[in-house]
Amino acid sequence: MNASVAQKNPLVEAVIRRGLLGKGFLVALAILALWKLASSFMAGPTVFTQQVVNGLQLGFVYALIALGYTMVYGIVRLINFAHGDVFMVGAFASYFAIARWDLNLWLSKVFPTLPFWLSNAIGVITVILVSMVTCALLAFIIERVAYKPLRNAPRISALITAIGVSFFLEYFGALPFVFTSNFITYERPINVINWVISSQGVYVLPAGEAPPPTSIIFSNISLYIIIVSLVLLFFLNYLVQNTRIGKAMRATAYDKPTARLMGINVDGIISVTFAVGASLAGAAGVLYATAFPQLYFVMGIIPGLKAFVAAVLGGIGSIPGALVGSLIIGEAEVLSAAYISTPMRDAVAFSILVLVLLVRPTGLFGEPSREKA
Amino acid sequence: MSDNSSDKLLDIQDIHVYYGAIYALKGITFSLKKGEIVALIGANGAGKSTTLNTISGLLRPRIGTIWFNGKEITQSPSEEIVRKGVVQVPEGRKIFATLSVMENLEMGAFTQSDHAKIESGIQHVFQRFPRLSERKSQLGGTLSGGEQQMLAIARGLMSAPRLLLLDEPSMGLSPLLVEQIFTIIRDINDQGTSILLVEQNAQMALSIADRAYVLETGRIVLEGPAQDLLHNEMVIEAYLGGHQ
After folding, report:
1. Do B184 and B78 sit in the same domain of this protein?
2. B192 and B239 housed in the same domain
3. For residue A116, what are the domain limits?
4. DSSP A73
5. Residue B69 and residue B121 in one domain
6. B3: domain CATH number?
7. Which of chain A's residues have a Cβ under 8 Å away from the Cβ of B81?
8. Domain tally for chain A?
9. Distance between CA B65 and CA B13 in Å, rounded?
């Protein structure tokens, strides 16, 4: 600061040398945020709880996208900027599956005697699987066509190619015979049920009725998003930790030439990684569209960016980091929209990124970079 | 053209290899018979590791052919070369530090699909390297240098190779550990695995090898039975620290 102006004050010098000003600022900011959260909670615990649930729901959707960023980065050191658009394609794939082919109801048409909840659940799983498979195939093709030829090129070439692929997906999608450039209303694969939790107990909110003032509304959509996300996260964790392919992914991410020496088909493993990441983004597309039922050809940009930020916040390359980072970004976004102001929510989410990176440049779970060939 | 008599397990015919812009191997020809230990010795940058990486398919020769067990593998992908039974234990050990010891071994058996075989392979290497068994759930990166070298060799043995390519197994180890590693190498050879050994420690390499080749800036300058090379003037001068 003004150390050069002031006489050599040992105290001032020590403060500057240890970066205490910056750290003090961060601590003050953290205290302010905690105080704000605590006072908001005291002012209205029910509303606050509701917001936390909303944040959780959004955080899980981000997590599914962020995992694709982090896995691909971990294995080929590429920030796949087309990933958000793969998410968009996933959302549209489910739109076609639902609105055109009624796949969410196929089982109840084949076996009308089955209980509706069961056939609907299987129908929803079918829709999600359609989106996941579509996105996995898409990412497989993108990787083979656009990224694989650049495997030994400088990293910046692949990065710029990723931006190109992103634009391609967006504006190919905007063509009138593809997704069109209009906003499209999404048909949810499930019927919305709102539960009201209030002093009178828990009951289903009748359609079109306003909820009583001091109550929490918990919708089956939150439940649906959180359950589907948890199931997918569980599967991914199993895949990466316990299967032969998952172990080969980790080995390849750590050291490609040595992975080759083990007889691992490195190109195949890279393709699988792209496909797995994209399938999670596809599922995220279905969940996101169910929560915010409107589709648009550039709808992938902002959630993709947020998920990328979440992955960096958690430490890019780290799978648990992507989950934790996403939950933080989701909560930060929803809580600041509720308690600061709606336009501030993105600013807060990105500020958290900047602040965390100032203190821990590798992100929350990131390992210090190990530079080697 | 080439004489692929059945006793030649590995037969390398005049390979020329570029490492980026560097002309690293300027036409080398050598072979290895079943059951042999063959040493490649030479100074830093002579092309020893390049030779092994070319055999393993990480690098491709511009000219020349590589035969293994009577079949050409010059253009085969790495995974197929491993599947045929040629496995490299790379220089600097290259343990997967973020994987456990057990997972490292499983990666060594990646080309095996038979679960029972993998299981018996693990039992086999644990018998040979009891230290690894004690540390099987530890991350590879937490092992000491000697343990990592043992894990690297154990990982290489997991796919039951017919030919093991060892790149500088003594690098960075204490004399006692070097002694131990070479005993293990001889033992592996006694059990029927042929070995191509790349070493800077020429003394050690020549003492266990059957035959040896001396590489100098991408060319083979000398070859012969290891015992003869151990007493060769030029080898003593250049690699064994002069006259004792």
Report:
1. yes
2. yes
3. 63-299
4. H
5. no
6. 3.40.50.300
7. 263
8. 1
9. 5
Q: Does A261 touch chain B (CB under 8 A)?
A: yes
Residue of A nearest to B103 (CA): A247
The answer to whether B96 contacts A263, with C-beta atoms less than 8 Å apart, is no
Q: Do B83 and A247 touch (CB under 8 A)?
A: no
Range of the domain at B177: 1-85+161-244
Same domain assignment for residues B150 and B187? no
Distance from CA of A265 to the nearest CA of B (A): 6
End of a domain among B110, B128, B160? B160
Of B78, B90, B96, the CB nearest to A263: B78
- Chain A residues lying within 8 Å of B98, measured CB to CB: 250, 253-254
Largest interatomic CA distance in chain B: 53
Region of A260 (left: φ > 0; alpha: ψ -120 to 50; beta: rest) is alpha
State the maximum Cα–Cα separation within chain A, in Å, rounded to a whole number.
Answer: 87
Residues B17 and B76 in one domain: yes
Check B58 against A261: CB less than 8 A apart: yes
Residue A137 maps to a domain = yes
Quote the CA–CA distance of B91 and B85 in Å, as a whole number.
19
Q: Does one domain contain both B149 and B39?
A: no
- Would an 8 Å CB–CB cutoff place A241 in contact with chain B? no
CA-CA distance, B143 to A12, in Å (whole number)?
Answer: 45
Q: How far does Cα A191 stand from its chain's mean position?
A: 24
Q: How far is the C-alpha of B71 from the C-alpha of B84, rounded, in Å? A: 10
Q: What is the pLDDT along chain B (244 residues), one digit of tens a residue?
A: 444 456 799 999 999 999 888 999 999 999 999 999 999 998 888 999 999 999 999 999 999 999 999 999 999 999 999 999 999 999 999 999 999 999 999 999 999 888 999 999 999 999 999 999 999 999 999 999 999 999 999 999 999 999 999 999 999 899 999 999 999 999 999 999 999 999 988 889 999 999 999 999 999 999 999 999 998 888 888 887 765 4
Please tell me the total count of domains within chain B: 2
Minimal-distance CA residue of chain B relative to A242: B103
**Number of inter-chain CB pairs under 8 A, A vs B:** 64
Of B139, B160, B181, the one marking the end of a domain is B160
Could you give the ipTM of this predicted complex?
0.91
Cα separation of A55 and B159, whole Å? 49
Contact A185, A294 (CB under 8 A): yes
Interface of B with A (CB under 8 A): 53, 56-58, 77-79, 81-83, 87-88, 90, 94, 96-99, 103, 106-108, 110-111, 155, 159
DSSP A325-344: HHHHHHHHHHHHHHHT-TTH
**A366 contacts on B by Cβ (under 8 Å):** none
pTM of the model: 0.89
A265-277 tens-digit pLDDT: 999 999 999 999 9
- Give tens-digit pLDDT for A133-185: 999 999 999 999 999 999 989 999 999 999 999 999 999 999 999 999 999 99
Single-letter code of the amino acid located at B225: P
- Whether residues B151 and B180 share a domain: the answer is no
Q: Is residue A32 part of a domain?
A: no
**Do the chains contact at A255 and B99, CB–CB below 8 Å?**
no
The reply to whether residue A250 touches residue B97, judged by beta carbons under 8 angstroms, is no
Residue of B nearest to A252 (CA): B96
